[in-house]
Amino acid sequence: MMKTDVISTCGTSGMTFPGFSSPALQSIARLVATTVLLSAGLAACGGAGGATASDAGSLADYPAAATGTPPGASARATAAAAALGRGVNFGNMLESPREGDWGLTVEQRFIDLLDGGTFASVRLPVRWSNHASADAAAVIDPVFFSRVDSVVDRLLDKGVHVLLDMHHYRQLDGDALDANERSVDPAVVEVRFLAMWRQIAARYKNRSDRLILEPYNEPHGSLTGRWNDLMARAVGVIRRDNPQRLIVIGPTSWNSAADLSKLVLPNDANLILTVHNYEPFSFTHQGASWVTPPLPVGQDCCAADQLSKMAWGLDVAKAYGVKVGYPVFVGEFGAFSAADSAARQRYSRAMRDLIEARGMSWLYWELASGFGVYDPSGAGAFRADLKDALYGQ
Ligand code: BGC
Asked: For 85-107, what is each residue's pLDDT tens digit?
């Protein structure tokens, strides 16, 4: 029996107890059973965002959405993918181990940048895993949940589409932990992923249709062979409370277009596909501290061979989307600030044009950190040339 079956009884009031004949004995039995359930933590009745250790369970408690005959995208999914337009990632904020660890917090002045009409959409990366209990139930810290609520709601109030993801659950990919990141028992890593989605999906079930959920950023490493199964279970658990909400699915190898054909799509019309494109990598990640070995700086862009590398993944993504009948957008691209600034502008404009020539929406990585289109120092200002290359005429 699945734990959810127990939880759905919401305690013992509807239960009868064979062998206890009189109403008085039934009451005593019910009292005993309630005590047992409570001490086992099983009487919480599920509730939106109200997971407890009782919800822990195993993968069997999170059945996968059916696959095999994906129907193609609904008109709503297609329209929303187009409406993402030219967007931006609010990166290095809520997906750092603790907000602020990577030098940025979500500030109201960042959210107010949406008033200018530059960005049609915002992707909000969130490291839920470091703000949830270490056990299988992965109960999300209520203070952190409220913080995310506040950011999501202020973004939605600006009228844009908001992509809320799960980012950097390092153990899920088998990666080394970051500083200030807590490890969990390997036995509960996967079920925690689903337990967190259960809570997130329940929490936001009544938000605007402009809120779109993305189960996981850039699956790779040890997640590669597990992604189709876990992704289908994530779609299943999101659908419990959000039968119609749009869900973004990306392929393995860090959302590489080359892996799109390995995705096993759920039979669900309210899906949108995503890819990331950091080609040419030796240009976009030159001087990036998180790339080993570090790539030398001084690389230029965009010669013909570089442009064809950039276009290749976009062509693959476009063709795949047409084949399966789902829209695809580019959820991340960008060049780190160690590149020459004129070259970054050329790259940014070229990538934007290549994506848009294929009829796809995109979100630049990212707003105000190492790739930032906005300089947050002092009073803050857009990097005008980069902003123009990306969002200008
Ligand atoms: C990662 C960032 C990284 C960026 C470019 C993103 O998906 O989350 O940490 O800076 O890709 O490498």
From this structure: 999 999 999 999 999 999 999 99
pLDDT in tens, 217-243: 999 999 999 999 999 999 999 999 999
> How many C-beta neighbours within 10 Å does residue 100 have?
12
How far is it, in rounded angstroms, from Cα 72 to Cα 266? 10
Distances (CA, A) of 214 to 123, 139, 153, 231, 247: 9, 19, 17, 10, 6
Q: Identify whether the C-beta of residue 54 lies closer than 8 Å to the C-beta of residue 11.
A: no
Write the single-letter amino acid at 174: G
Torsion angles phi and psi, residue 156, rounded to 5: -60, -35
- Asked if residue 329 belongs to a domain, the reply is yes
Query: Is residue 272 within 8 Å of residue 81, measured between CB atoms?
Result: yes
**Stated pTM of the model:** 0.87
Ligand 1 pocket: which residues have CB below 6 Å?
167, 217-218, 332, 365
Q: Which residues pair with 162 in a beta bridge?
A: 122, 211
Q: Which residue has the tokens 């030219």?
A: 86
C-alpha radius of gyration, the chain, whole number: 23
For a mutational test of ligand 1's pocket, the pick from 124, 166, 290, 292, i.e. the residue with the most ligand atoms closer than 8 A to its C-beta, is 290
Cross-strand bridge partners of residue 213? 164, 247
Could you tell me the two tokens for 248? 């973004």
Compute the distance from residue 111 Cα to the ligand 1 centre, in Å: 21
Ligand 1 centroid – CA 92 distance (Å): 8
What range does the domain containing 123 cover? 61-391
C-alpha 263 – ligand 1 centre gap (Å): 22
Classify residue 171: in a domain, yes or no. Answer: yes
Does 39 fall in a domain? Answer: no
